[in-house]
What does this fold into?
Amino acid sequence: MFTIDRNILYGKHTGATPNGRRAFEPLSRNLDAGNARDYNRIIELIQSVTKIDATNVPKESVLDVMLHPGAVNTASFSTLF
It folds into this structure.
């Protein structure tokens, strides 16, 4: 849930993780499950993030969603949801 560049700093001190991230690489940015992870549907990502209990999170966080330009044309955009 760390934003800006904390994922890089903490990643430099973190070993490999079960999701395939190699040791000392940046951790995922913000609320994303992992850097450059592919999701079948954007709605699944949003549903997953909304299950997080943020009661003890001192500050807000961000969910970055990056879409391939081809995914946002009018014909294919509706298939994401």
Notes: Residues 42-49 form the longest helix (8 residues). The mean pLDDT is 76.
